[in-house]
Amino acid sequence: MVRVSRWLWALPVLVFALATWLLLGPWRSAPADIAPATSDAAASSAPAVRLNLPLSQDPWAIVAEASRLADASQAHAQTQTDCSWQSADEQRLPEPERERQSAQQLNAHLLALAARLDAAPDELGRLTGAVLKQDTDAVVRMAHVTQDPVIYGLALRVCGSRPPVSACQSLQPEHWAQLNPSDASAWWAVAATRTDPASALLAAQRAIQSPQTTVLDGRLLKRATELPGFPPDMLLPVLSMTLTINPYSSASALTRACARETPEQATPKAECSSLALAALRQEPFLNGRIMLTTRAQQLGIPAQQLPATLRELKQLRHDMEDWRMAGLTDTAVHCADAQRVVAFDIDVMNGGDVAAYKRTRQRLAAAASVSASAPSASPAVRRP
Q1: Where are the domains of the chain?
Q2: Three-state SS letters, 168-220
Q3: What pLDDT shows up at residue 368?
């Protein structure tokens, strides 16, 4: 079976934590606008059961809901599909041999999916196939001939997230911006790679004035899972293979634009503060908001001018990761959990992870409301 370890899924968060160690501080509850989702993460010890507790958290309603679930949980567990793809025989092998066979089997499955994508009529399909094969040179070759800014931006991201190859040096954020001058993401990438504050500031100003922000996350994953007959046991391995880290964030660009190498080069503090607030309003990702908020505090921006505090943002990240990781273990992964995580990571492409998590909370709240109002098959719990 493919091991889906917590360290693997938390890799982007760990990379972010290394870059922002100064954010350590106590946690507190998030405000209403970024409140944690009412989700099944609290039932992670029994991931096959989905708790639909009413939002009112009325104790008697909770008892009634728990009674209903107790009647259904056994049948639900019997019908739950396991998304492991290692056979029972292989699970009884010694650990080193099991790991070797698992790696070989996983590679064979990935190559089979990549071969199908190689024959796709669309550039995104062929790019996804190259990513699954870990063929970065092929990714770069596609970028050189494309006129699609999404393909070029994805190639830049792949180069920034994989072991470096010489071919990646030929890809430049400036060309991405030329392909789509209205895309803030491209201009943030330009600013993040500029070496002097003045040129970085100019690119950052183009970014905050741009009417469009393209989110690249989730696109490779979505294209791979659109293959007809995509095997459910490959959902999580393909998600892992298509994860990319953005090395061209708005926070990195702000650091470049507001660097103070010499007094003559220093961007005025007021201009940096204005840029930080504009970037915060535009930033679609939670980790980016945390880094930008840190920088805003360093610039002396009053807390009341910030959309959220660091504590609130860190609490939201904690809640989001808890919900996302619920039910993912090393020994078994239920298909419902794999599908839930993959669906969320694909939804991220529609405006970032903050917007995707907000939509998730709304769906969970609606489901909980329906569950709370539905008649229960279990004997009613009488109030004293």
Answers
A1: 86-171, 188-209+246-347
A2: HHHCCHHHHHHHCCCEHHHHHHHHHHCCCHHHHHHHHHHHHHCCECCCCCCHH
A3: 84
